[in-house]
Amino acid sequence: MRANRLIIHMLVTALALLVLAPFLWLLRMSFETNAQIFAFPPRLWFSPTLENYVALWQTEFRHSFLNSTIVSLASTAASMLVGVPAAYALSRMNSRSEALSLWIIASRLAPPTAFAIPYFLVYRELDLIDTRLGLVIIYLTFNISLVIWLMRSFFENTPRALEEAAWIDGAGFWQGLVRIVLPTAAPGLTATAILCFVFSWNDFFFALILTRSDAMTAPVAVVNFMNYEGWEWGRIAAGGTMVMLPVLVFSLIVRRFLISGLTAGAVKG
What we know:
Layout: H1 2-30, H2 34-37, H3 51-57, H4 61-91, H5 97-105, H6 113-126, H7 132-156, H8 160-168, H9 173-184, H10 186-202, H11 205-210, H12 218-223, E1 226-227, E2 230-231, H13 233-253, H14 255-264
Antiparallel strand pairs: 1-2
Helix pairs in contact: 1-13, 3-13, 4-7, 4-10, 5-7, 7-10, 8-9, 10-14
């Protein structure tokens, strides 16, 4: 029995190292000079430097990082404000809720390239190209369906007797929703908000097409270090680490809510 457990632990450790190897390599490169990066054979021990991060933060990447933060937080907040009441309404419908939910989630099934040209043409007419508002709107349209689809299952698992008891005690409809239903579905709210933030933060396709300079996000800014004069691998690695770090740290902090939120709505009854 102990031997089987040891084998399982070894396999899990090997798999974790295999998955983390690219990220650890990227992190290592961000602390190396170009000479150290291209050294052959590669050296296991080296003198780390913060030169890449200092040079990175002195470029337009700082502004792009701020854009990513503002756009991701704004789109997540807007998606939750609109999607959570819609999910609650669907969970309390007596008929056709399954069909409506299927049509709502269908917007996530189409590839992003199918919406690129229509969005670009509409945004050009509305003067939303290269604006933060334009990115917030487009992320909102895709995240709302995710919020509705995920939160609907959480609200369906919330006993209606709790709401009815609150109504009997004199609470109004919105009081019952805010004080009874939402606290009960807190793990689901946290998990859904995290996923919306991650999807908005990691987007590259729409940010590349719909921004130029003022609203450029961090993932797109990293690509600017690949130019005709050569690829600045140290800055690319530092930029990739900066893009990855906030999501990683935030996910580790709220991992308990994320795990419980993703599993709580999986079983009905």
